[in-house]
Design goal:
Blueprint lengths: L14 E6 L3 H11 L5 E4 L16 H8 L3 H6 L4 E2 L1 E5 L6 E5 L11 E2 L3 H14 L3 E3 L2 E9 L2 E8 L7 E10 L6 H5 L4 E2 L5 E9 L12 E5 L4 E9 L2 E9 H6 L5 H10 L2 H4 L6 E2 L5 E5 L1 E2 L12 H6 L5 H13 L5
Helix pairs in contact: 1-4, 1-10, 2-10
Length: 334
């Protein structure tokens, strides 16, 4: 794809790939490429560690963590081990336990519940140790795509390349909900089924599960209106949150994410019995709007879809990053 005559030029030798976003998908894609001998630059707009939603992994994630050589580091971090999930009705009267080891087609019997600040930092540091050049607090601002590659202007507190144009043969958009390429190339696809709002916070004092289930997920189905969760993160802290329809969110009388979260918690008895002695310990609740996806990309600029990686839970962040890296890994070294 060609975006027209170039208006800014890179002054350095081209990278094989530029990865935008340092979350699990970006770190996984960058690491997979670097371990194949490619020259990779990753830019991340924030400074890690940082607070983030998406703390409950699925067993298939372990396979991709192992493929990029980071599974042992993740296991050594002593995250709670997740063996299954308690599935509950909103009234709390109906409950079913699902053990991953008994589920057909599930890759592995265990995975982890992760505080994303720590987990993401482990993956990003592993990417750097694998040969990826990492620039934090650096934003991708503009992109131009031509038949031979891409040119991206980056700026921020990322050292000598901040504010300069970077040339790469491929670009991987792992910017998540920000949707760097999808936004600039007009690829956002509004999905009526994704008119959802997510809100979550960390709590302590949540009623613990028995020791054999200490790391397991508690998940409440709200039917067509979404779902709710309790995710144990260790040290007596749990992530508690909701994903609900935009209509249900708008109907809440409160205005702040904290008060809306309290209102939602009070409306679901299944959670109330686990949270009677709990108190919020993070500074504020965080809300996220989920409205769009971007399913179209090319081998020159694969897109890590936010909605396929996080909202629909079909694969997981690292799996999406791995798939984005596959077409790039087939290119000849520069």
């Amino acid at each position: 794809m060609t975006s027209g005559p170039s208006t800014f030029r890179a002054a350095e030798a081209p990278y094989d790939a530029l990865v935008i976003g340092g979350g699990p998908a970006g770190s996984a894609a960058a690491t997979a490429l670097a371990r194949r001998g490619r020259r990779v630059l990753l830019v991340e707009r924030e400074r890690f560690p940082r607070f983030h939603v998406g703390e409950s992994l699925i067993p298939e994630t372990n396979r991709y963590l192992e493929a990029i050589g980071v599974l042992e580091k993740v296991a050594a971090a002593a995250f709670p081990v997740k063996r299954g999930a308690f599935l509950m009705a909103p009234d709390g009267e109906t409950e079913r336990y699902v053990f991953f080891g008994d589920a057909e087609g599930v890759a592995g019997a265990t995975t982890f519940e992760v505080a994303r600040g720590r987990f993401d930092q482990i993956l990003l540091e592993h990417a750097s140790a694998s040969g990826v050049e990492v620039l934090q607090q650096t934003r991708a601002r503009e992109v131009e795509i031509d038949e031979e590659g891409v040119t991206v202007r980056v700026e921020g507190a990322g050292g000598g390349r901040a504010g300069r144009a970077v040339r790469a043969r491929y670009v991987v958009d792992a910017s998540g909900r920000d949707g760097f390429l999808a936004k600039r190339l007009g690829l956002r696809e509004t999905d009526p089924e994704l008119r959802m709002i997510g809100v979550h916070a960390w709590f302590e004092g949540v009623t613990p599960l028995p020791p054999e289930h200490a790391g397991d997920l508690r998940l409440v189905s709200l039917d067509a209106e979404g779902w709710a969760w309790i995710i144990p993160l260790g040290d007596g802290v749990a992530s508690v949150g909701f994903v609900v329809s935009k209509e249900r969110w708008s109907a809440l009388p409160a205005t702040s994410p904290e008060l809306r979260l309290e209102g939602l918690l009070g409306s679901v008895p299944a959670l109330g019995k686990h949270l009677s002695a709990a108190r919020r310990v993070c500074g504020r609740a965080t809300s996220t709007s989920i409205r769009w996806s971007a399913s179209r990309g090319t081998e020159r600029w694969p897109i890590s879809s936010y909605t396929s990686a996080i909202a629909t839970r079909r694969r997981g962040h690292c799996a999406v990053g791995w798939r984005c890296a596959r077409p790039v890994s087939r290119l000849k070294k520069s």
